[in-house]
């Protein structure tokens, strides 16, 4: 008998507003808890959560808001800086956001009196992705509907600028070789750039449009995943520039693709909000069917926990968390 993969969220946290985006801190902050940031209509909340999977004396989830940052405009994207530390004195919280006004804001806080932000301006259309360089955290990469990928330093100056052939949808930095950047375009092309020579070094083709989201597998950087049209697609960049594996996944249209941070065969996808709900699925490359299916009233964002097989999604006045097996 086939086991039903449909699950309700394992944990939820109530929020004051509809959540547009949610991101676990992917870096070690020196604290056993997990930093999480989520954005709504005009603010960003940074909180700390711990789950029963990691601490035996916790029932379900323990969540605490550390600080709310006024943002003044809808938050569309959040990226954490590796400079974020909770074990330093004073602590350092550092992240950047993309917003509906086409600007990037770089926030720095000590969770007490120091709360600053700097505005990075230059994009002329909607920003679809942004990321910090994972080693030093001294640069930010962003991609936009304006057909560019831009690299910024923390002073807000552009240090590089790549012209794309279509809207830039996703951008990822190589975890070790920080001169390598992956940029995914809506027309189905994924290019890898060498930031030292500022040249493209490799490209992949999905042969499907529109490509909405792509992600570099940080556990195995030969693997790239994406969603385009209704399908998820996986490449092995050592073998071919065409997908090695693909499967239809969301009826309406697939929206986001994220690899698990701890298992190179585990990934999650979301569909666009349909008439009733957004569908969310967790897939394992060894299984022909999704290993978990969830649904969110108006789901937005998708982020994996740094050390657990656990996903967060934003919803209507709540954060929702799903847990799967390895």
TrEMBL record:
Q: Name its GO BP terms in alphabetical order.
A: cell division; chromosome segregation; mRNA transport; protein transport
Stretches assigned to coiled coil = none
Cellular component GO terms, alphabetical: kinetochore; nuclear pore outer ring
The protein's matches in Gene3D superfamilies, at most eight in alphabetical order, are given as:
YVTN repeat-like/Quinoprotein amine dehydrogenase
What main location does UniProt list? nucleus
The domain of life for this entry's organism is Eukaryota
Q: Name one Pfam family in it.
A: WD40
Ranges of the WD repeats in the UniProt entry: 120-162
Q: Which UniProt keywords apply?
A: Cell cycle, Cell division, Centromere, Chromosome, Chromosome partition, Kinetochore, Mitosis, mRNA transport, Nuclear pore complex, Nucleus, Protein transport, Repeat, Translocation, Transport, WD repeat
Protein's cellular compartments: Chromosome, Centromere, Kinetochore; Nucleus, Nuclear pore complex
What does this protein's UniProt record list under function? Component of the Nup107-160 subcomplex of the nuclear pore complex (NPC). The Nup107-160 subcomplex is required for the assembly of a functional NPC. The Nup107-160 subcomplex is also required for normal kinetochore microtubule attachment, mitotic progression and chromosome segregation.
Tell me the subunit arrangement. Answer: Component of the Nup107-160 subcomplex of the nuclear pore complex (NPC). The Nup107-160 subcomplex includes NUP160, NUP133, NUP107, NUP98, NUP85, NUP43, NUP37, SEH1 and SEC13.
Protein's UniProt name:
Nucleoporin Nup37
Q: Which organism is it from?
A: Gulo gulo (Wolverine)
Classification from the root reads: Eukaryota, Metazoa, Chordata, Craniata, Vertebrata
């Amino acid at each position: 008998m086939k086991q039903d993969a449909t699950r309700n969220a394992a944990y939820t946290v109530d929020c004051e507003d509809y959540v547009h985006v949610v991101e676990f801190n992917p870096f070690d902050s020196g604290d056993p808890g997990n930093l999480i940031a989520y954005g709504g209509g005009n603010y960003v909340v940074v909180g700390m959560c711990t789950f029963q999977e990691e601490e035996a004396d916790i029932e379900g989830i323990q969540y605490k808001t550390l600080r709310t940052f006024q943002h003044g405009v809808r938050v569309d994207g959040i990226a954490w800086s590796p400079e974020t530390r909770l074990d330093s004195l004073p602590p350092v919280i550092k992240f950047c956001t993309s917003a509906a006004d086409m600007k990037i804001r770089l926030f720095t806080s000590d969770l007490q009196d120091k709360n600053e932000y700097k505005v990075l301006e230059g994009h002329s259309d909607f920003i679809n992705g942004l990321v910090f360089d994972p080693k030093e955290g001294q640069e930010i990469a962003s991609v936009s509907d304006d057909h560019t990928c831009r690299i910024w330093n923390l002073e807000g100056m552009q240090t590089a600028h790549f012209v794309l052939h279509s809207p830039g949808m996703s951008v990822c930095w190589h975890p070790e070789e920080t001169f390598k950047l992956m940029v995914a375009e809506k027309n189905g092309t994924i290019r890898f750039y060498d930031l030292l020579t500022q040249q493209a070094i490799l490209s992949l083709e999905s042969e499907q449009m529109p490509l909405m989201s792509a992600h570099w597998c940080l556990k195995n950087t030969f693997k790239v995943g994406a969603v385009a049209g209704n399908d998820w697609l996986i490449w092995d960049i050592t073998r071919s520039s065409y997908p090695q594996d693909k499967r239809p996944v969301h009826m309406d249209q697939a929206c986001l693709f994220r690899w698990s941070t701890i298992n190179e065969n585990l990934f999650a996808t979301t569909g666009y909000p349909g008439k009733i709900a957004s569908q969310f699925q967790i897939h394992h490359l060894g299984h022909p069917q999704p290993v978990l299916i969830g649904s969110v009233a108006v789901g937005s964002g998708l982020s994996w926990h740094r050390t657990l097989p656990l996903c967060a999604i934003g919803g209507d006045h709540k954060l929702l968390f799903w847990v799967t097996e390895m």
